[in-house]
Amino acid sequence: MKQLILVRHAKSSWDDLSARDFDRDLNDRGRGDASDMGARLAKRRGFKPDAFLISSSQRTRSTAYLMADQFNFAHADIELKDELYLASPSTMLKVIRQTPDHVQQLIILAHNPGITELTNRLARTYINNVPTCGLAILEMDISSWHEVGSRALLLDFDYPKRLLVEDALQQQP
User: What distance in Å separates the CA atoms of residue 121 and residue 115, rounded to the nearest whole number?
Assistant: First the structure.
């Protein structure tokens, strides 16, 4: 059994309009959301990722480091993958399939629309949009990452505003 956690980077800053897209960092909300979502992952029973693969853009690096701090994952062990920058689902699958088989819990942190499309493809579900800093936890009954395909079970879909939405729905008459 393998778990794949697909994460979209947190909210990025548009303060410097001359900055390249690749170099944009997080805004204040994005930094807070990344820490909060990392803490929510850390609270999950038995959560201890074996590998953390991310796009090499600035906003994904910042998101990863803030999240990783919450579950004591060393920054030095986070792998930057240039091919995950604005990657298609097919490219993400190629990266996932190269993961060593001893890895049981794998985090992929990248960009939309790829994260949303890959989540829908693997879980055979329909999520309109994985929001910034949103994540999908997928479980697959496979022994090798080479087997990743379209038979994943969506265990959880979480995003920063989810608790606010659930609270509002519970308060409705």
Answer: 10
- What would the pLDDT profile of 20-34 be if each residue is shown by its tens digit? 999 999 999 999 999
The closest of 84, 132, 142 to 108, measured between CA atoms, is 84
Query: How many residues can be counted in the chain?
Result: 173
pTM for this entry: 0.93
φ/ψ of 88, rounded to 5, equals -80, 165
Place of tokens 């009954």: 141
Cα 59 to the chain's mean position, in Å?
Answer: 12
Domain boundaries, the chain: 2-171
Under CATH, which number does the domain 2-171 receive?
3.40.50.1240
Count Cβ atoms below 10 Å from residue 25 Cβ, excluding itself. 18
Q: Distances from the Cα of 109 to the Cαs of 52, 71, 166, in angstroms? A: 8, 15, 25
The amino acid occupying position 159 is: Y
